Amino acid sequence: MSFIETRGNDGVNPSEVEFSDAILNPSASFGGLWVPKNIPTIDEDFIVNHLDKSYKELAFDILKLFDLDIDDETINQALNLYDRFDDPTNPSPVVKIKDDLFVNEQYHGPTRAFKDMALQPFGSILSSLAKKRDEKYLILAATSGDTGPAALNTFKNKDGIKVVCLYPNGGTSDVQRLQMVTEDGKNLKVIGINGNFDDAQNALKTLLSSQKFKDELEKDGIKLSAANSVNFGRIIFQIVYHFQSYLELLRQNEIKLSQEIYIDVPSGNFGNVLGAFYAQKMGLPIKKLLVSSNINNILTQWLTTGKYDIRDKELILTSSPAMDILKSSNIERVIYHLFGSSRTKELMLSLNQNKYFEHTKEELELLKEYFSATFSDDSYGLKTIKKFVDEGYLMDPHTATCIKGYEELRDDKTIKTVIYSTAQWTKFSPTVLNAINENNTKYKDKEALKLISDKLNIDIPQQISELFAKDILHNDIIDIENLEDKIISFLQGK
Ligand SMILES: *Cc1c(COP(=O)(O)O)cnc(C)c1O
Questions:
Q1: 177 vs 31, 144, 146, 429, CA distance in Å?
Q2: Which is nearest to 404 in space by CA: 301, 316, 300, 314?
Q3: Mean pLDDT calculated for residue range 347-372
Q4: Which CATH number fits domain 80-113+233-462: 3.30.470.20, 3.40.50.1100, 3.40.50.150, 1.10.443.10?
Q5: Ligand 1 nearest-atom number relative to CA 146
Q6: Helix/strand/coil percent split, the chain, to 5
Q7: Ligand 1 atom 2: the closest Cα is on which residue?
Q8: For residue 67, which of 46, 39, 26 has the smallest C-alpha distance?
Q9: pLDDT tens, 423-439?
């Protein structure tokens, strides 16, 4: 399968590449992204045939549909990383919490957030490719708190790969920060920047498209790649678990074959729900994709008014920080698949230059056939966490945003909904404790973890509890203008 560019070709980049090139060099012409040229489709037999298959087998078969230039052994080796999850046969279990409401728990991997679902196998494929080609790579990751730990975990001590991870100083939870700054592995560098996640992501995009920076790296024989969901190598693994949601509802006798479901995803950079968009395009019976976000409600504005307008918007820090974002990268892929490359280029350049674009009425109508969107604020999140804890289900603040989507966006109340739990409560324990205790005391993560664990009689996973005893290995907090120099000196071993 070939991959092509969302903004068309500039005559310098190759206009079509294979999967391996798209993931090793994720930046496409005019600052665009790589997308599959054709989206494969499935029939009902595909669903039936996977009812008694494992998650790994499902993932293998979906990857095969995309006809990637990756050999079976490399794919299997990557999928074996699901062995690091709580239950290797079922890395993202689907749990019933109401008659018509289910949770796909995506946080059972090593860093307790959904990013592991894709980054574990993606890291393995990327490092196998680098090794086979005998090439050295610098992987850049900008994180709002969950991508960073997951990327560091997957690439740690991999030959030929170095990782620089940027996080917004003060923008993550203690646990998230500790997961990064205590990570050893001589090929890793973690840098706090003075700025927010959008600043970190912009800095990353600037470096990825800077010829000067690439030339500088080239002197040391190093190529540049990215671990954010701008990289299609992550998106492909994020298609699989939406199929798993559907299969699980069938297995649990909650739906009949070909019956539709709602998929309700807490969204920021739009990579998770993009996976569901591809699943739907491939033929999975999804009634609608419900996009839930926080008070930084840019996605709701986009999908309800057809305008993407960040001219007067300031990023607001919330208790669901992984969704604190104004420039959502993966909407570009949706726009491409629905409206083509010249329109995508036009809209994206307008967003870059004017911080604004607007769809036509017809375009908006088409978007609305796929997506509905809503948002909620922190106080809604706290109340929701409390309500569900009282009913016996503990969720994190990101997951809680989906309840708003479930309550507001279903046109057909007979259809069942799967929401996505993207992080374990342990990553955001102070907020969760505020919800449970209905107060606004400023707890430390360590204290909140213990209080919740005692109160609800649940375990703290070792991956989290051990963090507090580890040494801090990465102390850099810098201004963005010093980033390039900092990275170069890390690469030169200074
Ligand atoms: C990354 C993340 C999200 C947002 O996912 P996108 O794919 O960027 O939309 C939501 N919740 C958590 C906990 C995350 O880590």
A1: 30, 10, 9, 14
A2: 300
A3: 97
A4: 3.40.50.1100
A5: 15
A6: 50, 15, 35
A7: 322
A8: 39
A9: 999 999 999 999 999 99
Q: How far apart are CA 375 and CA 442, in angstroms?
A: 25
Any residues with CB less than 8 A from the CB of 493 and at least 6 apart, and which?
A: none
Residue 211 CA to residue 353 CA, distance in Å, equals 20
Amino acid, single-letter form, for residue 386: K
Pocket lined around ligand 1, Cβ cut-off 6 Å: 113-115, 146, 229, 266-272, 322-323, 398, 422-423
Q: What angle do CA 87, 93, 94 make, to 5 degrees?
A: 165
Q: Please report the pLDDT score of residue 205 as a whole number.
A: 82
Q: For 399-422, what is each residue's pLDDT tens digit?
A: 999 999 999 999 999 999 999 999
The one-letter amino acid code at 208 reads L
Q: In the chain, what is the straight-line distance between the N-terminal and C-terminal CA atoms, in Å?
A: 42
User: Which residues touch 232 (CB under 8 Å, ≥6 apart)?
Assistant: 3, 19, 22, 23, 26, 33, 34, 35, 36
Closest CA to 271 of 245, 319, 298, 233: 233
Instruction: Give, as one character, the DSSP assignment of residue 52.
Output: T
Torsion, Cα 168 170 175 181, to 10 degrees, reads 60
Amino acid 35 reads: V
CA-nearest residue for atom 8, ligand 1, is 269
Domain boundaries, the chain: 80-113+233-462
Helices 55-65, 72-79: axis angle to 10 degrees equals 140
Ligand 1 centroid distance, CA of 492 (Å): 33
Ligand 1 atom with least separation from CA of 398 = 11
Q: Which amino acid is at 126?
A: L
Cα–Cα dist 487/460, whole Å: 35
H or E element at residue 374: strand 371-375
CB proximity list for 413: less than 8 A, separation 6 or greater:
100
Residue 253: strand, helix, or coil: coil
| Three-state secondary-structure class, residue 98 | strand
Q: Is the pLDDT of residue 220 over 80?
A: yes
Q: Ligand 1 mean position to 30 CA, how many Å?
A: 26
Is-contact 23 233, C-beta < 8 A? yes
Ligand 1: nearest atom to the Cα of 396: 13
Residue 100, class by beta-carbon neighbours within 10 Å (0-12 exposed, 13-18 middle, 19+ buried)?
Answer: middle
